[in-house]
Specification:
The protein folds into 2 domains: 50 residues, no CATH class; 80 residues. The protein has 2 helices and 9 strands. Strands 1-2-3-4-5-6-8-9 form an 8-stranded antiparallel barrel.
């Protein structure tokens, strides 16, 4: 029993993932959360109309379509869509420069990796990558991008088209560009 406990203490432990080093904190921009009276307000003016459409009796062909099959959205649907759009715009305004979908290409223009990064503007940048060789997680501190699970390390330098740098995998280094997909 004592030997097993000592062996457990002496066995090297894997370093925790960078995302596990910080405690959870709620996002600075909360998602759209409607108030308690949302949907219970009565429509004013000529906003009260059909709230649902009658069922279709037969398939509608493109040639017969005249736009009468949709109903005007209700005030509740309009308010909800506006709230979601507003929350999305506020979240986009606080995002950092690495936020989004990127493609890493070599000097010949061949795609090496597709990556998706979540950059909140503060703290570590996290995401994932995939290539023909596999896939894994990705972490960045703004100067380097580590493609975990054997993907390599990319040094980052701003350029007009996005980012550029050098990719090091298995001791081999080569220049790369990091741009938004076409």
């Amino acid at each position: 029993m004592l030997i097993a406990a000592l062996a457990a203490l002496l066995t090297p432990q894997a370093a925790p993932h960078p995302s596990a080093l910080e405690p959870y904190s709620p996002p600075a921009i909360r998602p759209f959360e409607p108030g308690s009276d949302f949907g219970r307000e009565t429509a004013e003016g000529d906003g009260a109309g059909l709230s649902h459409r009658p069922p279709l009796a037969a398939p509608v062909t493109v040639d017969a379509y005249d736009g009468a099959y949709e109903v005007t959205p209700t005030d509740v649907e309009i308010a909800y869509d506006q709230g979601v759009t507003s929350a999305e715009l506020r979240a986009d305004q606080t995002a950092g420069p690495l936020n989004g979908v990127w493609r890493i290409r070599d000097a010949d223009g061949r795609t090496l990796y597709d990556i998706v990064l979540m950059d909140h503007g503060v703290g570590p940048v996290e995401g994932g990558w995939r290539s023909r060789r596999g896939r894994g997680g990705a972490v960045s501190d703004g100067r380097t991008l580590t493609l975990e699970d054997g993907g390599g390390v990319v040094t980052l330098e701003r350029s007009q088209a996005g980012w550029r740098g050098s990719l090091t995998v298995d001791g081999r280094t080569r220049p790369v560009t990091i741009t938004r997909p076409d």
